[in-house]
Design a protein that fits this description.
The protein is of the alpha+beta class and 203 residues long. It folds into two domains: 61 residues, no CATH class; 93 residues, 3-Layer(aba) Sandwich (Glutaredoxin), CATH 3.40.30. 57% of the residues lie in helices and 10% in strands. The protein contains nine helices and six strands. The chain has a four-stranded mixed sheet, with helices on both faces. Helix 3 crosses helix 4. The longest helix has 34 residues.
Length: 203
């Protein structure tokens, strides 16, 4: 039955309003995705791809695993197959990444995120060379990577520390050179290393 007069006009206006509202929210959603991916790709990736079951420690291990195992690859948070944030297609893939990154604490219990030109990074590396630890520290020279800023931002997010060096002991940041030097002078550093099953040959 054909609607005539005011009823037809009301139906037309209602349909128009629905289309306008739907279109408005669609545009807002698309713009939010676009602005997220262009202005802050790391935030965009975390928002849409990050597995919320991962702990901060898991993410930090993943960052170490990626930067040390794939030196020729740069972090792109929009890539769906990065181990550091555990992008994956299935739950099984995520479990495989967990197994690999959780071995980091055994393979490299001490990690030094360093910059080659930073004098404090140099002193930190010299201190651990003097201690002659086994395993030896894993040194990641962040300034030699193309994704320096992303790595720095992720370290800041995960450890609360945005300066270098950033020294990790079993996936926990113990600070920079000044912090580690103080721990060394007080004798606490040797205790922490030995408690972490790290052999210290030096003094």
């Amino acid at each position: 039955m054909m609607l005539k007069g005011p009823w037809r006009r009301r139906r037309t206006l209602c349909t128009t309003h629905i289309c306008v509202v739907f279109g408005f929210f669609s545009v807002v959603w698309v713009l939010s995705l676009w602005s997220g991916s262009s202005s802050s790709p790391t935030d965009f990736y975390r928002k849409y791809y990050r597995d919320r079951d991962w702990t901060t420690t898991d993410e930090l291990r993943g960052l170490v695993y990626f930067t040390s195992s794939f030196p020729g690859r740069s972090l792109d948070p929009r890539d769906g197959h990065l181990p550091y944030t555990f992008g994956k297609t299935t739950r099984r893939d995520a479990n495989v990444w967990k197994e690999k990154i959780r071995a980091i604490d055994t393979v490299a219990p001490v990690v030094i995120f360093s910059k080659t030109y930073c004098p404090f990074s140099t002193r930190a590396k010299e201190l651990f060379a003097k201690l002659d630890t086994q395993p030896k520290p894993l040194v990641i020279e962040v300034d030699l990577r193309e994704d320096t800023d992303i790595v720095k931002n992720e370290l800041s997010r995960l450890t609360g520390r945005a300066t270098f060096p950033n020294i990790l002991l079993r996936s926990k940041s113990i600070g920079g050179f000044d912090d580690v030097q103080s721990l060394y002078e007080s004798g606490q550093l040797l205790t922490m290393l030995r408690d972490g099953h790290i052999v210290v040959h030096g003094a």
